Amino acid sequence: MSDPLPDSSFASLALAPELLVNLDSLGYHAMTPIQAESLPLMLAGRDVIAQARTGSGKTAAFGLGLLSRLAVASFQVQALVLCPTRELADQVAGELRRLARTLPNVKVLTLCGGAPFGPQLASLAHGAHVVVGTPGRVEEHLRKGSLNLAALETLVLDEADRMLDMGFQASMEAIVAETPASRQTWLFSATYAAGIKPIAEGLMRAPATVETAEVHDATSIRQHVYRVADEAARFEALRRLLLHHRPESSVVFCNTRRETREVAEALGEAGFSALALHGDLEQRDRDRILVLFANRSASILVATDVAARGLDIESLDAVFNYQIARDLEVHVHRIGRTGRAGGSGVACTLVTEQEAYRLVRLGEFLGETLEEAPLPGRAVLERDPLTPPMATLQLDGGKKQKVRPGDILGALTGEAGLRGDQVGRIKVLERSAYVAVQREVAKVALAQLSAGKLKGRSFRARRVSR
């Protein structure tokens, strides 16, 4: 591989030597377009509006920018990142900790709804440099006086368009009112929706605008449109497409919660491994579903747009649009969830005769003619649905019990005798932990976790289904 051009190298930036050493160890050598365009402006003290899709490297862009401004010796909140969902906030916080690991004692704290309030109060009392959170919970801490933003240097609004869509504008404005006027403000958005402009004008000082949110090209995402006779024919078409493409990881987007539940149930009855993600779920059920999907223990996530906002799902092989999204920008955002990071993906959209006019509008919006393709023939119906490669096990111990990912991995690769490549993702929560293992060794792994000990203690373990 040839060396990166000088102007795309992180070394060309005025970053601390510790950050540069860490970036090199993480394998971050050449900047992505959003990093190359936005980071110099951030480091120069500018407010920035950046239009960039998920998977473009935006988190590392604003992460390096805000870490460069920290006075580590001062245990005051100097940077605040607002995210639309708890899942995105967790991912952003994890990336910031990775980027900051060579800086001395940088504390990154997450403040999200759906998590207990008490532990957050205790963590805030001990001080933090960076807070990553959802608008509702951050506003609640400000109202109770447990969060002080008087020393804030940097405010980041990540996926600002989604926060507006989800009704967070009043919370965002209340939070901004508690921050110093001298702060730097960076706004990241996948789309530059109409509601963003007035907010940006009210929050920012002469912001620089960076636009790298390209529409995906045909080399990374293959878009297919399939005409179906009527509503009753939609599910049969979806079934054929899933059996034809056999994606290991895919999302089926529906426009309503009811449809999401019905489609997921019908897929399950047809032998597919499918989970429904919608706004009626309790937080713990949502967490479990997302873990199962991320662990590759379920191959299909059937979701509404609102429920899927803020999710950063890697390695998505395909997206299926049960219908065209009501908002055409949202439709583009759906399609952009596959074919990331140089990979390839498939986007399939089902359209009835009654929706033909929406297909024309979508083509005009994208600036291209969307070709219709014939559905796979009936021969694909003889295939069996894909079986997910992994199974997920749950332990009833987590961070509160001092359980670490390394403890679980050691138990499975030690006494249980599993190979490292037979163990997948391990996610440790406050009071529970999830581990993915290859399906064929799930019984052995479960027996070891049930009978063995972690940290000198026994924990109950079970295999997680839907």
TrEMBL record:
What's the protein name? ATP-dependent RNA helicase DbpA
Q: Kind of enzyme, top EC level?
A: hydrolase
InterPro entries under this entry? DbpA/CsdA_RNA-bd_dom, DEAD/DEAH_box_helicase_dom, DEAD/DEAH_RhlB, DEAD_box_RNA_helicase, Helicase_ATP-bd, Helicase_C-like, Nucleotide-bd_a/b_plait_sf, P-loop_NTPase
Motif Q motif: list the residue ranges. 8-36
Specify the Helicase C-terminal domain's residue ranges. Answer: 220-381
Task: Tell me the protein family, please.
Answer: Belongs to the DEAD box helicase family.
Domain (Helicase ATP-binding): residue spans on this chain: 39-210
Q: Which SMART domains match?
A: DEXDc, HELICc
Q: What is the lineage of its organism?
A: Bacteria, Pseudomonadati, Pseudomonadota, Gammaproteobacteria, Oceanospirillales
What's its EC? 3.6.4.13
Gene that encodes the chain: dbpA
Keyword DNA damage included in the entry's annotation: no
Which is one GO molecular function term here?
A: RNA helicase activity
